[in-house]
Amino acid sequence: MIRPCQPTDHQAIFDIINDAAQAYRGIIPADRWHEPYMPMEELLHEIDSGVNFWGYVEGDELIGVMGIQPVKDVTLIRHAYVRTAHRNQGIGGQLLKFLLKTTDTPVLIGTWAAATWAIAFYEKYGFRQVTIKEKNRLLRTYWTISERQVETSVVLADGRWLA
What is the pLDDT of residues 36-58, one digit of tens each? Predict the structure, then answer.
């Protein structure tokens, strides 16, 4: 079942993100990795900044999360993670398809350039990488991230953006 996350889910969201982000260890640039990958303060800042998390629940356990954030004239998919023990079961795809139905604006996704599995996942759902020049412009326009993260990321766009 997919449902909106509540304040009572913050610890579970934190746990899911930091469990699933272990896949980035040794893959993303070393200067971008830290423990925990997303501290609780950062998670709460993201929520306060307008990221609305949705969760995939199995039984009574939250096992996957994905955020959605309207910014200016687009919608961003943010912080998509599934517990390591539940990967490759279609949970991320279900969350993504659900969230895509909730918006009429173009959808953009930023991820690490080195996370080839994440890029392939989004491409499976019709997203395409934008050019480097466009990526740099989009990341500086719609995200609040460091220049180093701009350098080491890619942006994928849906058909509404690419049309």
Answer: 999 999 999 999 999 999 999 99
| Per-residue model confidence (pLDDT) at position 129 | 98
Q: How many angstroms separate the CA atoms of 142 and 47, rounded? A: 16
What sign has the CA pseudo-torsion 144, 4, 40, 156? negative
Neighbours of 22 (CB within 10 A): 11
Burial, 94: exposed, middle or buried (Cβ in 10 Å; 0-12, 13-18, 19+)? middle
Judge whether 69 and 78 are in contact, CB under 8 Å: yes
CA 109 to mean position of chain CA atoms: 7
Q: What is the pLDDT of residues 74-125, one digit of tens each?
A: 999 999 999 999 999 999 999 999 999 999 999 999 999 999 999 999 999 9
Single pTM value for the model = 0.96
**Domains and their CATH numbers in the chain:** 2-162 (3.40.630.30)
